[in-house]
């Protein structure tokens, strides 16, 4: 596995070396003896630009090594050439890193690009749209926020804590719209998930003070 990761890491330069060796062999011995080197060079260059080194981010992500993840992403010179599902993952990771750095404009830009491409991981699509919805709500754009959060719920959110956040956000949106029956319905769905995150539990307890007083 480590050897394979090293090959991926230095694939571009190994491919260039293969091209140089292929040309030298071609000059000295002819095309067919050099064919395998040409073939390896083409495969290496193709996979470098169309697949990229995204496989390498798994280990540093698990270790929480953000600097290494950023370094790997920055080594991708032309992300627009990446195969579509891989490009989607690339922009998802870029968006999440921007969120961690509180660069919300960049996060929104990258997550929108990932969302437009369609996620390579179905479980990530709902999370992406939920993040976009929460950012829209922070900006006071309730219409866009509602649209993104609805799309997130339809896509499926595979984490009950995040799903509860989505329902609570919808609850608050409909409270603001004075559509109290729908607000109560979303609140019940959030509560039924029995979230345990401190912030989410506190939000549910706060809403419990107001929900019974709502008409409808």
Structure notes:
The mean pLDDT is 91. The chain has a domain at 1-50. Helix 7 (104-117) runs antiparallel to helix 8. The chain is built from 12 helices and no strands. It has helices spanning 2-9, 11-29, 31-50, 58-63, 66-74, 84-100, 104-117, 122-138, 142-155, 160-176, 180-192, 198-208. The radius of gyration is 24 Å and the shape is elongated. With 216 residues, the chain is mainly α. It is 76% helix and 0% strand.
List the helices and strands and how they pair.
Layout: H1 2-9, H2 11-29, H3 31-50, H4 58-63, H5 66-74, H6 84-100, H7 104-117, H8 122-138, H9 142-155, H10 160-176, H11 180-192, H12 198-208
Helix pairs in contact: 2-3, 6-7, 7-8, 8-9, 9-10, 10-11
Short description:
The chain is an all-alpha fold and 216 residues long.
Distance linking N and C termini:
60 Å
In percent terms, what proportion of residues is strand?
under 5%
Reported for the largest beta sheet, the result is: none
Low-confidence stretches: none
Global structural class: mainly alpha
Mean pLDDT: 91
Helix percent band: over 70%
Taken in chain order, the helices and strands follow as HHHHHHHHHHHH
Task: Tell me the total number of β-strands.
Answer: 0
Radius of gyration: 24 Å
Shape summary: elongated
Count, helices: 12
């Amino acid at each position: 596995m480590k050897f394979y990761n090293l090959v991926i890491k230095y694939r571009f330069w190994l491919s260039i070396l293969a091209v140089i060796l292929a040309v030298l062999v071609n000059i000295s011995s002819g095309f067919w003896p050099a064919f395998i080197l040409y073939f390896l060079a083409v495969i290496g260059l193709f996979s470098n630009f169309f697949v990229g080194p995204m496989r390498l981010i798994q280990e540093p992500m698990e270790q929480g090594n953000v600097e290494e993840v950023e370094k790997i992403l920055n080594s991708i010179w032309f992300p627009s050439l990446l195969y579509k599902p891989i490009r989607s993952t690339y922009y998802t990771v870029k968006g999440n890193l921007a969120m961690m750095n509180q660069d919300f404009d960049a996060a929104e830009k990258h997550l929108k690009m990932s969302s437009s491409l369609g996620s390579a991981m179905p479980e990530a699509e709902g999370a992406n749209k939920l993040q976009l919805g929460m950012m829209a709500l922070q900006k006071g754009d309730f219409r866009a926020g509602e649209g993104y959060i609805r799309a997130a719920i339809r896509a499926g959110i595979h984490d009950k804590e995040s799903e509860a956040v989505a329902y609570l956000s919808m609850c608050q949106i409909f409270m603001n719209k004075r559509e109290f029956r729908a607000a109560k319905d979303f609140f019940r769905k959030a509560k039924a998930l029995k979230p345990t995150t401190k912030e989410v539990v506190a939000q549910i307890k706060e809403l419990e003070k107001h929900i019974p007083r709502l008409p409808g």
